[in-house]
Amino acid sequence: ITSAIAAGYKKHDFETLYVMCNNEKIGYSCMLCRQVIQELFESGKKVVAMNPNGEKKILTVKELCPYPFDEEDLK
Question: How far apart, in whole angstroms, are the C-alpha atoms of residue 23 and residue 2?
Fold first, then answer.
């Protein structure tokens, strides 16, 4: 995500994010990464969490980050 931003992409340019761990578990993002995702992906965009066996769970950003810290919290 940070490389894409550095290359000039903006929040509305992202459609789907794929997250994978290198084990049998379906991989999810850590909390720090979830904050970055919440800031750069619109709440209805898809996050596909998967493992190398092809098992996956599809969530929206809102489902992955149900209690976001955003610009409203800074007011």
Answer: 24
